[in-house]
Amino acid sequence: MPGSGKTTLGRALAEHLGVPFLDLDAEIVARAGQVVSAIFLQHGEAYFRQLEADTLREIAAQAGPLVLATGGGTPCFHHNLTVLKNSGVTVWLDVPVAVLTARLAAAAETNSRPLLATSGPSEKWLHETLSIRTQFYQQAQLRCPADACTAAAVAAQLAAAGIALG
């Protein structure tokens, strides 16, 4: 979900594991030459979701371990969850809506999040969106509850699951 800490935790986890870090939205921006909010505004969500799926598949086809932070909607479209699960370990950052709301309200980049730009970090929108996305998130191989979600905790979950990187 937006505000769950995917990029922050992803960077820390990649450093902890000694592997590269990629942010899927940053890769999309680099390839499209436009920020995500501009892509949504100019072309619409369907176009963005296809661009997201194409970029994900290109990254997944590359060899070598890495930590990839996806957008919160990524696993919900174009069979992206299957791509993610087939190319690595998926982790659900399970953060309560109240915490997401507080984080997003405090974040200066809320306007750069196209699905929040018109309404802001609405608790109602977050509840509705999480309700729709949970069916996808629950399929992640690992679940990291908000209060225990650190790079070391995720690395320990990976090790406990017998997953070695690097």
TrEMBL record:
Mg(2+) binds at residue 7. It holds the Pfam family SKI. Its EC number is 2.7.1.71. One of its GO terms (biological process) is chorismate biosynthetic process. It catalyses: shikimate + ATP = 3-phosphoshikimate + ADP + H(+). Its cofactor is Mg(2+). Binds 1 Mg(2+) ion per subunit. It is found in: Cytoplasm. ATP binds at residues 3-8, 113. SUPFAM superfamilies: P-loop containing nucleoside triphosphate hydrolases. Substrate binds at residues 25, 49, 72, 133. GO terms for molecular function: ATP binding; magnesium ion binding; shikimate kinase activity. Keywords: Amino-acid biosynthesis, Aromatic amino acid biosynthesis, ATP-binding, Cytoplasm, Kinase, Magnesium, Metal-binding, Nucleotide-binding, Transferase. Catalyzes the specific phosphorylation of the 3-hydroxyl group of shikimic acid using ATP as a cosubstrate. This is Shikimate kinase. The gene is aroK.
